[in-house]
Amino acid sequence: MRSLIILACGAVSTSFGQKVISEISYKEEKQPLEYVYLPNQDKVVIIQGKPVNKVYKNEIQDIWALDKDGFTQKLISNERLANCVFSPIETAFLIGKISDKNEFPKEYKLNLD
């Protein structure tokens, strides 16, 4: 009886295991700020950076795109950006470059897929 209970617990724990899609390391200065699901491309975008006490609220440093097959793509790497907005058809995104002053970005960068 005892071995049957152990076998049942083992089967239940393996059937509810989670699948790891990708391993992205998080640090204090690069923590996840936002998760965006893009239904047309069936991807999840992870925006990493750090929260700041300025007008634009978050300093974006890295942007990752993940698909359901485990493919990981780094869209932005080691930059200081703010206000990421994706296009309605999800083929481009607009992101502001941070100035040294406490003001909204005046210069924007357009990234096309």
UniProtKB/TrEMBL annotation:
Protein name per Swiss-Prot or TrEMBL: Uncharacterized protein
